[in-house]
Write a structure and sequence with these properties.
The chain is mainly alpha-helical. The protein is built from 7 helices and no strands. Helix 3 packs across helix 4. The radius of gyration is 18 Å and the shape is elongated.
């Protein structure tokens, strides 16, 4: 594999953090309030970063398991079927977190739940990288970054929304 092809394959997961960041930034450029901007950021992150990336992984592991095996540096196993459905669960949670009726607490819980899977996956990727020399594009690079960032940003955004809501409730309105 050429260096360019390796870098391209390795960088694809980064689209799922760059696109929602750019989309939310553009959408909130002239936002009417901090609350509205934060809501927009949370929805973009939930839909694209968690929802679409996880749905993409579901479809990839179900539709092209041999390609995914090669991409992650393993031989094909039934475990990939399980990974597909774990990602489907993450996608459903991401789309739920984007709902207007999703509470801040629910979004924090979804971020933590996604973190348990994705942070564990990141540890697995790093272990395979350093312990076994697995430098396959689907095991190193962009996937490790997205596994770490997606749930962390979801939790941070939800916590900021929670703090903003608390501070707005504590500040009496001027009459």
């Amino acid at each position: 594999m050429t260096t360019t092809a390796y870098l391209a394959q390795s960088a694809v997961p980064l689209l799922f953090v760059v696109v929602p960041a750019i989309g939310a930034f553009v959408r909130t450029w002239h936002s009417s309030s901090r609350r509205a901007a934060l809501e927009t950021w949370q929805r973009w992150w939930a839909i694209v970063a968690l929802g679409c990336s996880s749905l993409w992984m579901t479809l990839a592991f179900l539709g092209a398991p041999d390609v995914m095996s090669t991409a992650i540096g393993f031989t094909r196993t039934p475990f990939e079927f399980e990974i597909a459905f774990a990602n489907l669960g993450l996608a459903v949670m991401g789309f739920r977190a984007a709902s207007a009726s999703a509470s801040t607490r629910e979004r924090i819980t979804i971020g933590i739940g996604a973190g348990m899977f994705l942070w564990g996956a990141a540890v697995g990727h790093l272990h395979q990288w350093f312990a076994n020399g697995d430098h396959a594009p689907g095991n190193t690079g962009g996937v490790v970054i997205t596994d770490l960032l997606i749930p962390a940003v979801m939790i941070i955004l939800a916590r900021r929304a929670q703090r903003l809501s608390t501070s707005e409730q504590a500040t009496p309105a001027l009459v």
